[in-house]
Amino acid sequence: MRLLKNTWKNRELCLMALPGVLIMILFSYVPMYGLILAFKKFDFTLVFKSPWCGFDNFRYIFLVGDTFWRITRNTIGYYLIFTVTGTIGNVMLAIGINEFAKKRAGKVMQSCMILPTFISYIAVSFIVYAGLKGDTGLINRLIVSMGGKSINFYMEAGKWPLILVLVNLWKNIGYGSVLYLSVLTGIDQEMYEAADLDGANARQKMWYITLPMLIPMVVVMVLMGLGNIMHSDTGLFYQVTKNSGALYSTTQVLDSYVFNAVMTASNYSTTAATTLYQSVIGCIMMVVTNLIVRKVAPENALF
Question: Any idea what the Cα angle at residue 39 is, between residues 227 and 286, rounded to 5°?
Fold first, then answer.
């Protein structure tokens, strides 16, 4: 009864939130019914009435060989590298723009850094290919002009971890810095003025004022991202790499594996088991990490 009264009292706010709630239910909760396929032997003629097979699909993906453990390692490894490099890059860019002497020039630079965010990965894949392809690629031309031999990048798996890190940084660093820049603009300027009176230099103010004020936002962003620790950007790992089989050892992750399996095979039960595995591990990681943060620094915990 009390819930109904509160809902009616705040009916304008509830009405404003209704479209977002409906979209969340439609795209986040309704599809969860499909997870039952992870425990069934999928049959096209029966679909959801397919016979149950228990945990056979999970046994298959875990015992199929080293493939599943390799792509799990790649997924977690890239998440950690992207999180570390992205956080450092976002914080450095935000501080640089905030400390820029000419504010208008800083805003122009920030706008230029954000632009790659709006470029689709299909377009990014062509940009990367133009730089890496055969003898006519920009990088290979540079290597040859310096007396070296051209490299077939799409056959050299060992070079792609660095390439993917650089592409990810280039595409996301501008947008990610916006959140940290909003925190910096909200810092009380009296703290900096007090530091000036105490004789602090620019480095000391950054170390003892700016960075500590950014730590809560860093913790929140890391905790929110942990739910996706087993997920990766399919566009980056599937399209940018051209889905080259020669690169699978260092570029194939769980999402690109599932996407490739759906496109080339018909074993939807196995792919459903893989996605359920991703979601469960991500949820556990987020909850456990939040509990640790709540023990160490309760004010920075997400919940």
Answer: 10
